[in-house]
């Protein structure tokens, strides 16, 4: 029997749940380009939910069949796109039995904080979808082949914005009433979406321990960018959201600049996060997949590259846009969220550097690339202008 690490270096069989998403698609391209075999599953829900809020991807998205053909044409290799819903455990079981993956990547979650805060129905959908898909995956892998590596996307937002350094570990030592014990790292979500990821983490820890599973739980900050090395043709583009519900802050600022709208830091604008480019995110994921933890290990990974507050980011995007001849204003708008608008933020990051990961992109340079990529789509973006200003209030 070939040692698992050596086998992974040769070729890996990866299932990506949520392959139609911003990250799922970009990761599929990276893995196929590296010679790995990829089977992706997606229920296309983000396409529908984005239309539900009157928006769409900045770049028109090819159908699943067209995506399969585009991969074959530009990258060759082995890639299959299955339209399906992993809340259906039978589908997951059949896929894992048939494809025999070395790894399953779980991105098949509702990933928007504002979407989860619209009303009871949206909160409930988010919790049901995210927690049940995670539970299904844990049971499928435990029942069929516990040696499969589960790589699960969590969020830096699981930690919230505590007044202590955020550790990169599942457990911390705590002293309660003078007695010491080891407890799960304290967490505090800022939306029902973020709470769903916290509950996911507890499921991974608990079932992982019971069934001796191999798990990577990634705490990633907001991702920005339009490109990865593989996105060399329009037909390979990944989705790009910019509306108040689905767009993340830097991506939104870039579209606001292209449309001549003011950039919109919420409230005081000192909200601080760890950001990472799409290219660096996908590369970090590749490294984590090709360097799995030991059997039975739960590995938590903090994944970000640069720390900024949202006002500093607005100034970076303004400068980049002005260099390209655009006129840009910054207007602090009323914060629709309930969150700390000024706070301490110092997360630890050691796992990715220890595996040789070094970010290649930075926000100052990458925003120029993004603005240039978005400018040709200005007319299309105009159609969704109404969906940009925040409307979803936390209270
Ligand atoms: N913000 C603004 N102006 C805007 C949009 C956002 O000031 O126009 C602020 C928000 O209030 C927040 C910060 O920017 O303080 C980040 O917001 P975001 O919408 O970029 O990101 P968030 O809602 O936190 O969620 C995104 C992804 C989610 C991921 C998370 C990582 O949608 O899937 O888990 O980033 S983290 O932020 O570390 O929790």
Our measurement of the CA-to-CA distance between the termini, rounded to an integer number of angstroms, reads 57 Å
CATH-scheme architecture: 3-Layer(aba) Sandwich
Round the mean pLDDT to the nearest integer and report it. Answer: 97
Output the CATH homologous superfamily: NAD(P)-binding Rossmann-like Domain
Unreliable segments (pLDDT under 50, ≥5 consecutive)?
Answer: none
Plain-language structure description:
The protein is α/β, with parallel strands linked by helices. It has a single domain, classed as NAD(P)-binding Rossmann-like Domain (Rossmann fold, 3-Layer(aba) Sandwich), CATH 3.40.50. 40% of the residues lie in helices and 16% in strands. Strands 3-2-1-4-5-8-11 form a seven-stranded parallel β-sheet, with helices on both faces. Helix 7 packs parallel to helix 8 and helix 11 crosses helix 13. Bound molecules: sulfoquinovose-uridine-C1,5'-diphosphate (USQ). The site of sulfoquinovose-uridine-C1,5'-diphosphate (USQ) has 19 residues, from helix 9. The site of sulfoquinovose-uridine-C1,5'-diphosphate has 19 residues, from helix 9.
């Amino acid at each position: 029997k070939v040692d698992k690490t050596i086998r992974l270096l040769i070729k890996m069989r990866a299932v990506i749940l949520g392959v139609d998403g911003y990250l799922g698609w970009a990761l599929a391209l990276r893995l196929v380009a590296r010679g790995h075999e990829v089977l992706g599953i997606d229920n296309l829900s983000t396409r529908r939910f984005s239309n539900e809020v009157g928006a769409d991807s900045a770049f028109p998205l090819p159908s699943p069949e067209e995506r399969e053909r585009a991969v074959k044409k530009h990258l060759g290799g082995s890639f299959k796109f299955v339209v399906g819903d992993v809340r259906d455990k039978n589908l997951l079981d059949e896929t894992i039995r048939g494809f025999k993956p070395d790894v399953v990547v779980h991105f098949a979650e509702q990933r928007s904080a504002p979407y989860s805060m619209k009303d009871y129905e949206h909160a409930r959908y988010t919790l049901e979808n995210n927690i049940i898909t995670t539970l299904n995956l844990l049971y499928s892998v435990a029942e069929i082949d516990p040696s499969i590596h589960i790589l699960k996307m969590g969020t830096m937002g699981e930690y919230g914005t505590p007044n202590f350094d955020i550790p990169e570990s599942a457990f911390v030592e705590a002293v309660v009433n003078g007695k010491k014990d080891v407890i799960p790292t304290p967490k505090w979500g800022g939306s029902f979406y973020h709470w769903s990821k916290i509950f996911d983490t507890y499921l991974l820890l608990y079932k992982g321990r019971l069934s001796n599973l191999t798990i990577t739980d990634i705490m990633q900050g907001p991702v920005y960018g339009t490109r990865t090395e593989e996105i060399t043709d329009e037909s390979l583009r990944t989705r790009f959201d910019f509306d108040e519900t689905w767009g993340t802050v830097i991506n939104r600022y870039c579209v606001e600049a292209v449309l001549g709208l003011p950039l919109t830091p919420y409230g005081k604008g000192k909200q601080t996060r760890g950001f990472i480019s799409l290219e660096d995110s996908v590369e970090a994921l590749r490294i984590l997949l090709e360097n799995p933890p030991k059997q039975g290990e739960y590995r938590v990974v903090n994944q970000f590259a640069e720390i900024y507050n949202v006002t500093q980011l607005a100034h970076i995007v303004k400068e980049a846009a002005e260099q390209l001849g655009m006129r840009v204003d910054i207007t602090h708008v009323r914060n629709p969220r309930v969150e700390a608008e000024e706070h301490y933020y110092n997360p630890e990051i050691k796992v990715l550097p220890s595996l040789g990961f070094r970010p290649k992109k930075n926000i100052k340079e990458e925003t120029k690339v993004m603005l240039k990529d978005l400018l040709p789509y200005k007319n299309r973006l105009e159609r969704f202008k109404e969906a940009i200003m925040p409307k979803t209030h936390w209270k």
